Amino acid sequence: MSFDIFLKKNVTVAIYEVGVGGENDATNVIETPVVTGITSLGIDHEKTLRVPRQIRPIYFALEAKYGQEDGATIEEIAWHKAGIFKSGCPAFSILQQSHAANTLRHRAEEKGVSLTFIESLSELLDVKFPVGIQRKNAALAVALTNTFLNRDAGITCVDYSRISEEVLRGLGNANLRGRCQLLKEGPYFVNRNSDPAAAQSLYTQKHYSALWQSLDPHCHVAIAPTVENAINLAREFGKQGMQTLVTGSFHLVGGVLFILEPEMFN
């Protein structure tokens, strides 16, 4: 759908984020991207990112046997992520664990790809990011952008790591609310009781609540029918002060921000 919309709107530059894994991702229909990039790799989606049996011996000698309940190793995940590499198209990655980096190098060599690992740039030290990984991702974004500017936009950059004053200013002003955002509330509590009847129909939430409780029997797990109810429950638990993590989708985070910072949506 996005391809259809972008073509109809004559979009000249599109930045695509792949899904769970690069090797089998739908974005591989793009045969010659201008440039590809890989951010920090970790152990996630490990059930999906197992390397096919016939490929495994070529790349790594793994302790876990294929077919066990154990998920994919970091090498296997790197193998999948490198599926976005395309022959003749440059690729960049932030610094990775040694095993993951070696796998990326092998895949790049196999595909005829020039792979460059990006270190955090000194110019970014003065830019205030909520967490350190965002500084690394910003360095990667600079490399990807400069590669595009050099090749397709007719703007010559000294090298992939050059940061102009305009880019630094843009990064300093960039704001993605809800992503690693820290909010502080005063010592107050709004008491609005949840509707017990509404909570009865939350089958999925009840399932995960029971699962969480089985993992930690001493943990108090509460279910709320709405985001507002959940916030008020957290406020009640934290009357004396506590840290609360809101995680999940932007849909959830957006709902929380709408309640905590309503003035931002006016």
Concise description?
By secondary structure, the chain is mostly helical. It has ten helices and three strands. Strand 2, helix 4 and strand 3 form a beta-alpha-beta unit.
Average predicted confidence as pLDDT: 78
Beta content comes to under 5%
Rg of Cα set: 23 Å
User: Rough shape?
Assistant: globular
Largest sheet composition? 3 strands, parallel
Please tell me about this protein's structure:
The protein is mostly helical and 266 residues long. 38% of the residues lie in helices and 4% in strands. It contains ten helices and three strands, in the order αβααβαβαααααα. It has helices at 2-8, 56-59, 74-81, 98-111, 132-151, 165-173, 196-200, 203-215, 227-237, 250-260, and strands at residues 36-38, 91-94, 115-118. A three-stranded parallel sheet has the order 1-2-3. α3 (74-81) packs parallel to α4. The chain is globular and about 55 Å long. It starts with a helix and ends in a 6-residue tail after the last helix. Mean pLDDT is 78; it is low at 61-69 and 187-195.
List the defining traits of the structure above.
single chain, 266 residues, three-stranded parallel β-sheet, 10 helices, 3 strands
Question: What is the strand and helix layout of this fold?
Answer:
Blueprint lengths: L1 H7 L27 E3 L17 H4 L14 H8 L9 E4 L3 H14 L3 E4 L13 H20 L13 H9 L22 H5 L2 H13 L11 H11 L12 H11 L6
Parallel strand pairs: 1-2, 2-3
Helix pairs in contact: 3-4
